[in-house]
Amino acid sequence: MDIKDEESAPSSKKASKKPIYTQFSQQDLPAWKPILTPGWVIATFSVVGILYIPIGLLTLFASESVEEAIFRYDDRCLPPSYAHNANSYIQSDDTNKTCTIKWTVEHEMEAPIYIYYQLDNYYQNHRRYVKSRNDMQLRNKAAEGDLGNCFPEDKTTDTNQPIVPCGLIAWSLFNDTYRFLTSNKDLTVNKKNIAWGSDQRSKFGSNVYPKNFQSRDLIGGAKLNESIPLSQQEDLIVWMRSAALPTFRKLYGKIETDLEMNDEIEIVIENNYNTYLFGGRKRLVFSTTTLIGGKNPFVGTAYLIVGGLSLFCAITFILLYVIKPRPLGDPSYLSWNRNPGGIK
Amino acid sequence: MSSDEFLLLESDPRPVIHHRRGKSASRSFASISAADVAAAAAEAIILDADVKDGSDVLLSDDYSFHSAFADPKFPWECPTRHRSVSWGAMELRDAAPFEISGANTAATTANKSARVRHKSVQFDDVALHEDSARLIYINDPKRTNDKYEFTGNEIRTSRYTFVTFLPKNLFIQFHRVAYLYFLAIAALNQLPPLAVFGRTVSLFPLLFVLCVTAIKDGYEDWRRHRSDRNENNRESLVLQSGDFRSKKWKRIQAGEVVKIFSDETIPADMVLLGTSDQSGLAYIQTLNLDGESNLKTRYARQETASAVSSEACDVFGVIRCEQPNRNIYEFTANMEFNGIKFSLSQSNIVLRGCQLKNTDWIIGVVVYAGQETKAMLNSAASSSKRSKLEGYMNRETLWLSIFLFIMCLVVAIGMCLWLVRHNNQLDTLPYYRKRYFSNGPDNRKKYKYYGIPMEAFFSFLSSVIVFQIMIPISLYITMELVRLGQSYFMIEDKDMFDASSGSRFQCRSLNINEDLGQIRYVFSDKTGTLTENKMEFRRASVHGKNYGSSLPMVENTAATDVTPKRRWKLKSEIAVDSELMTMLQKDSRRAERIAAHEFFLTLAACNTVIPILGDGGFTSCGTIELNEDIRRIDYQGESPDEQALVSAASAYGYTLFERTSGHIVIDVNGEKLRLDVLGLHEFDSVRKRMSVVIRFPDNVVKVLVKGADTSMFSILENGSETNNNIWHATQSHLNEYSSQGLRTLVIASRDLSDAELEEWQSRYEEASTSLTDRSTKLRQTAALIECDLKLLGATGIEDKLQEGVPEAIEALRQAGIKVWVLTGDKQETAISIGLSCKLLSGDMQQIIINGTSEGECRNLLADAKAKYGVKSSSGGRWNLKHKTEDEHDDLDILNGSKSLSFPKWNLGKEEGTNAPLALIIDGNSLVYILEKELESEQLFDLATSCRVVLCCRVAPLQKAGIVDLIKKRTDDMTLAIGDGANDVAMIQRADVGVGICGQEGRQAVMASDFAMGQFQFIKKLLLVHGHWNYQRVGYLVLYNFYRNAVFVLMLFWYILCTAFSTTSALTDWSSVFYSVIYTSIPTIIVGIQDKDLSHKTLLQYPKLYGSGYRHEAYNMQLFWITMIDTVWQSLVLFYIPLFTYKDSSIDIWSMGSLWTIAVVILVNVHLAMDINRWVLITHVAIWGSIIITYGCMVVLDSIPVFPNYWTIYHLARSPTYWITILLIIIVALLPRFTCKVVYQIFWPSDIQIARESELMRKRQNNLQPRQQVSS
């Protein structure tokens, strides 16, 4: 036994230099090698077409079933006398900012009806703005003095007290309010659960209370009730989820009763937020919702177009293969076979 | 040194064994001339890589006689008519180490050239008298090292120590531009106004790369440390207070006396003081140094040798030697001993790394130790090559930089315009707030605002940071990994494993894998590359009679029958011609018998082969009696031809078994014949012959000569009719041999009368001791006796073709690769080898250029060009043909006069000018042609229009010159393949150098980029692996450009929507992970694994290789198409989510999350669409990447501190998210897919068709059995 081992040892050692043949090392593993046969091509296009057209139809249908009503009010709520001086109107403490819009519901809207405010030309995604917040401070009472990134809204200038919540985003909190009256009766607007539950739970502390917020210095927007913890300040939480695009909607509340056709609704708006400064428009949006969200015909249309194109391609290729077939893998099509002597 | 080069190189610095009766002082000069030439050649290379300049340098010196090129028309007998041919004088082997080690300092070069000139005039100590000389006091290391701090013998190849590792490694790493780019970006990001990413995040990619590289470097260095330690701790016997005691190598100092025993390695560069041989002879093997496995002789000076014994060394003297340098073929020094001053040369020194062989012991004094040894000075690594594709890639990277610049500029200008427009609002914009509005001390101070121009500038810089991955830095690392993987597959390929030598394929350079797929020209050495370089004695023509034609049939059985007893066992059996054998056995006094006797005596005696006797008691079975003492004998020699001849002589009963410096002993059929060697004229390429003068026991003195036919026939005695008959018979035999591809030599001898002997002896003595023009004088001396020779016969030695060579060449040719063979052999041999390896075919028109003057060459070239209508239309060819007919005859006559054995097949080649052309050109003509720009141009035109080019009689540097000829004038890739030291220049000059691990050591391998066991592997290497590598890397580069650009463009579109404020919707980590984790693995896997065609198909259709040199997998057009596709895809990526979520409450982080996942899925599906071959690991990589991305996002979104907290959970619940992704993928890829399909239907590429046919065939094969069953 020992002898045998000794004998085999050197020989195996000698052989070890020889590559050991495996399918892997010889690049010979069993593999799926797809080629674009006519069948594959036509099948691919057909499948895309067949799949996309129904999805497009469904999406479009869903989108169409959404009822939406939009009111622009930044201009309407500006008294004509201030037409050229909107800025002083909105900045003045003395002017009456309440305005009323009457709305006759055109289509029936089923509860819940979401109320959004929509701002234009408002770069919530500006780098200066997006960064101007401190998530530690929002979460944790102990990190109250954590003011990194919060310039220029970090401390009160006279007393040097930290502002909670600090930063430009919180400072510029939207402060228009809406009331809805139907037959002179208040339509209840549910402002609970408009923010992400996850934000309320983990990002905004339940023991962090607003402090020194919007005090004395230039006031940027809404004030906060200092007795309510941040986690309950849903308007703030919604606002602080910076919008992706310069035109954005933010959820204001929900109406949890159906609106019937021809209902007369009086919208009372407190027009406080200054967008005149940069020509931003303000809108109020009522919208029902479906599985795919709000009204947006784009996705459905795009799906229909892509599906249609694919089917068209499928048909074209079927025709092409019929009219001008090329036998697959025919060596006579190789360049040096097609034009003999063509190769130098 | 390749054996064919042996025939033509005279500047061999190794001294051949001389007759040692002369003053030993002469010995030291043996190599001077050679060394000078070598130095000059080397110098020329250093000064200017241009070959022609090198030759100019030589021309200006007085070295014309050292030409390796004999002028065939003017043999040495007419010394007055010699011509200065400079080209071949450069023996490459000498130059090679210089080239490998890169640039020398200008100072040493100048120094050396001064020295060279001094020596050419007189060997003197001028250089040594200068302060620069190094003084070594023998056996007095203290005094030696007292004044000068010579390096100890400790060597250090490692780069780092524990302390220096971090700073030094970082320093070296930051030499790469890529890392500096990383660093600059990271540094930019640390500036407060630019902090786009979190500070730690931005450092992550750099740290990652640095760490990986540092770990790799550290490991390699640890291994070097280990090997250094082993080397330093070896022990040798050193003379310490009168006794030889063991001492560790690292403690050895210059000036110490060291004793080395047989088979030991030499620890430092030492001057020999004494050896076990009385005359001071020692044999060394320089395998580790220059890769030559044969033995070389070194001498101790007679003066010191006598003072040294095995146990003691009473030599006390001073050696004055030059400063350490890296020329291993030169050593200049002198020694003062016992009041005598004498010179030392290269033959007196043994170098570190050599092994002592065949000598019991040597004693020497250390002159250079440790890092200053020539071996260490030569160990610098060869500079790395850069692949062509990478060059193109860098060009496109420049384009990408321009895109990057434009994008940043757009952002900066946009920012500027936006600020100007909103200038009066900036104070109050809620999302900008330029100033503090508080009433406190900061009131109305500007906050992070530096004025519009500065803001614009900062936005430019911060957009550079955001868009940084537009420059695909990760691509360089990816490519390195991919090439590593490709190398693995090349190394592991079982078809490229040489079972006979047990050598695997080697990838010595990791940078140029893809170049293998783009080769247009292959320059091949012949001997050892196409042939096996195992010389076999096949044919003999003795006394005008041809023997050996029936050899294959007779074989050994007959031979052993006629050999009654054999007392010598050779390494390999040699087939013996029975007829010749029987004739030798007969004891007759016929002229034929005597000629045969002398013929074999010459074979056995006229050489420099050293017989090494093995152990006795070698028993073999068969007809030989068991109790007889058969000794194994092994012949060591510089030239395989000589070995073959000596072995053949032994087989016919003339066994050389002892050689000392003064005599040789030959066993003639059991009878010991002791011959005194009176003198030896070594082989040189001017005379092209070698002769020995020997004294027989009966006091007859004979000169035995062997040499090339061209040089021999002119010095034969012309006389009787029988002589003439033998002459003609031998000549026709020679023609026959060379047309069979055999290497021929002519053997002749002559008796010397006493008067002649005396004259010769005095001249020889004088010549070999002369200080100036020694080789010229020796040559003149040789001419004295090398005349009126009696023709004995001729030999034909076969250099067998390697296995598979014709097939490989045929495949390369079909693939559109031009194969040029560059050989040192003579024209006829080269042509016959060309025919036998199917390089040449019978129907080819052979254009033969061998001019003897510049004008002649020019005319020949012009004629050939005109005749074969090179560069002119086929119509013009007709007219030209008639005009040049006469000239063509001249050409033929010229050729005929040139070589006696001119082949006949170029007669009648007037027919069919359309036949493929073959250009055959010899080294002499190349000398003239390559020197002149115009002629080179003509040669280039002619050569490129020929199917085959065969260059014969070329010197090593000419090989490189020919490679240069092509490289300078075309963009085509060149590959040089060779096995010997003479191929090193060519291998290094070519774009891809391939070394054959053959008979001739490892020097070619060391200089090469790839090394393999046999020539035939080149077929698979190029056609299969080269093709795959090229396709893979080409796709990899394009894909990586796309992958990074699509991401950056997507960010760019978004920035246009954020008031140009360089906001990124993606989280910092996602941005960083994108190229590092999310998308990197699939590209690597595909780059290593994917293959478009199976190796069977690729070998079946060699023409498919053409896609490589036509740059089909990577070119500018493809780059732009890819970029257009990239822009489309990025627009789709950006705008579909934008429109989908236009009027919605989506927040920036959700949008970013959607984009992240969309882009990762998109690029992976894009890759998946282009994959040709799906194996399990590909699936894992592609789909795994997407899953990993999701995993990372889930993890990142679960950390509450990040602003993107919980987004992915939120999004995943909404069906809009999913249908948006689906829409993006399809819309983005639809154009690409459609184009691909259309292209494949209407303009299928060859690869595509071959791929289809491969797969269809497979399917058919699968179907066929079933069909048979059903039918």
Structure characterization notes:
The complex is a heterodimer of chains A (344) and B (1271). With 344 residues, chain A is an alpha+beta fold. Chain A folds into 2 domains: 36-66 and 292-323; 67-288, no CATH class. Chain A is 31% helix and 15% strand. Chain A has 10 helices and 9 strands. Chain A has helices spanning 2-15, 38-64, 86-91, 127-130, 135-139, 168-171, 197-203, 234-240, 297-323, 335-338, and strands at 68-72, 98-104, 113-119, 177-182, 185-186, 189-190, 248-255, 264-270, 282-287. In chain A, strand 4 and strand 5 (185-186) form a beta hairpin. In chain A, helix 2 (38-64) runs antiparallel to helix 9. Chain A is extended. Mean pLDDT of chain A is 86; it is low at 1-15. With 1271 residues, chain B is an alpha+beta fold. Chain B has a 9-stranded mixed β-sheet with strand order 14-34-33-32-15-28-31-30-29, with helices on both faces. A 9-stranded antiparallel β-sheet of chain B has the order 17-16-27-26-25-24-23-22-21, with helices on both faces. Chain B has a 6-stranded antiparallel β-sheet with strand order 3-2-4-13-5-11. Chain B is elongated, with a radius of gyration of 37 Å. Chain B starts with a helix and ends with a helix. Chains A and B meet through helix 2, helix 4, helix 5, helix 7 and strand 7 of A and helix 16, helix 40, helix 41, helix 44 and helix 45 of B.
